[in-house]
Amino acid sequence: MLEEKIKQLKEETIKKISEVANLEQLRELEIYFLGRKGELTKILRTLGDLSIEERAKAGDLANKIKNELTLEIQKARQNLGEKTDGSSEKEWIDVTAVKEKEEFGHLHPISIVQYELEDIFTSMGFMVLDGPELESDYYNFEALNIPSWHPARDMQDTFYVEGENLLMRTQTSSMQVRAMEKYGAPLRVVVPGRCFRNEATDVRHEHTFYQLEGFMVGKDISVANLKAVLEVVAKKLYGDDTKVKLRPKFYPFVEPGINGEVTCFLCKGKGCRVCKNTGWLEIFGAGLIHPNVLKFGKIDSKKWSGFAFGFGLTRLAMLKYEIDDVRLLCGGDLRFLKQF
Ligand code: PHE
């Protein structure tokens, strides 16, 4: 009797489902038959009057039919175009919609200067190399003629990695011996990259900054070659009337060591706020590669000689764009970066 009723309800529901015209009607139908106060529930309420066996049988049947009907309703809903994620509007496309403009990124001021220099150097036959930022004490200091006891280590406050004999490289010079070992002589290389020093930060000091190292190994390389190359670079960077001035400075891995200045690009040497009224900008360290360094790089210093230089890329970008706080460059503040 009860089973009959349940089956009848099923037929009736399926028929009604096939007649439904829209989602609204379907939802009403679902509530009417399967809802908490719906027809099926009403029938199940009367189960209590049956014997235990009959109750179990009718209960099973009712569940089975409930599942079947739920499935039917789901199918009907899809046919009527409802999305399966539960939202009820039919899928539609607004062909008149205006696409929001995508924001494109752009080069960071340091990258701009870096690529400018890479172009100049590759046009002179230099190759561009990358090197590890987490570096060994050996390549960053030892192989650059700076033994552990040497006071020159104090010039660079270094982030050491505990127990590993590793450090965050303090200079791109760390690539000199690596490149010599890998490529031998003759050699022309530039290495742009990030360096790290344990600085107390302020407008002029930052723990993370960029350098561009360069070195050349060949026959009879002298300071004259170094000056010639750097003059080409300075003129391409800042114009044909730019001059290069070399003065002595100590670096353990070059002999002689040089402090390099170029004519201020803003005042052309007259003196202004960018060059602090000197007319000159100090932008690189340089020198002739020390024979000990060539030896570490397995290059015979009797046959070969070379020069090396290091530009402060961060400093170049600051000068070019008149940025007065170095911390802005790695600060990731879009209000600053969007200006370039
Ligand atoms: N590595 C040096 C520095 O960081 C710069 C330099 C490079 C000097 C090459 C001489 C030769 O100060």
UniProtKB/TrEMBL annotation:
SUPFAM superfamilies, sorted: Class II aaRS and biotin synthetases, tRNA-binding arm
Keywords from the UniProt entry: Aminoacyl-tRNA synthetase, ATP-binding, Cytoplasm, Ligase, Magnesium, Metal-binding, Nucleotide-binding, Protein biosynthesis
Biological process, per Gene Ontology: phenylalanyl-tRNA aminoacylation
GO cellular component terms, semicolon-separated: cytoplasm
Aminoacyl-transfer RNA synthetases class-II family profile domain location: 113-339
Residues binding Mg(2+), per UniProt: E255
Cellular compartment(s): Cytoplasm
Cofactor: Mg(2+)
CDD domains found in the cross-reference section: PheRS_alpha_core
PROSITE patterns referenced in this protein's UniProt entry, alphabetically: AA_TRNA_LIGASE_II
EC number: 6.1.1.20
Cofactor note: Binds 2 magnesium ions per tetramer.
Single GO term (MF): magnesium ion binding
Transmembrane domains' residue ranges: none
Main location: cytoplasm
Family to which the UniProt record says this protein belongs: Belongs to the class-II aminoacyl-tRNA synthetase family. Phe-tRNA synthetase alpha subunit type 1 subfamily.
Assembly mode: Tetramer of two alpha and two beta subunits.
Protein name (Swiss-Prot/TrEMBL): Phenylalanine--tRNA ligase alpha subunit
